[in-house]
Amino acid sequence: IAAIGVFIGSHLLYGLTNLPVIIALIRSPGQVKSLSHLFQWIFYIFGGGVFYGGLLGGLSAGTIYLRRKKLPLGPFSDIAAPVIALFHCFGRIGCFLGGCCYGVEVDWGIVYTNSLIPEANGVPRLPVQLIEAGFNLLLFCLLAALLTRGRLRHRLLLLYLTLYPTGRFVLEFFRGDAIRGFFMGLSTSQWISCLLLLISLSLWTTYGVRSRRSASVK
To answer: pTM for the whole thing?
Structure first.
């Protein structure tokens, strides 16, 4: 169920990063010459995926399923946290091998010659995909260790949603691909990182207040 949410959410958010293209097509519908041409445009606009869209879509679908089945969110969210980090680690390795989500130009780095994205080819680029893969691997190790030790029960996903957005916000400055959407100098993923970090910090604060109240009652 969560995988369905991941698939839908990742492609929808990718489409959002292509919002200027969608607006241009709406203003000039004559660019669509035929039904097959329309499908080509749809694939171009929604054919890629954005991690945050998949994350939010997967979490939403999983939460709805658990609620309908009247299953507890806490234990499932604890298991999901390290799994998401490990999944993303391998995903970024795939990005590196495929030549997408590439880094900025540097004097040293990886030179792509056969990437499906023409802009990635021919210049040395920072392997930001591998840096993020390593970051996610560290997150997995931390979350898995906490899970096996029974620490921070029912709050591991919250911890992930605090640490990952922080790292992702910084790493976005080292991305070289332009198809990520920009508003006020920040990418779509940076704005989502800020929102998730704000929500997670507010939840940590709420949890701390409740814990102190419970301790005082006891």
So the answer is: 0.86
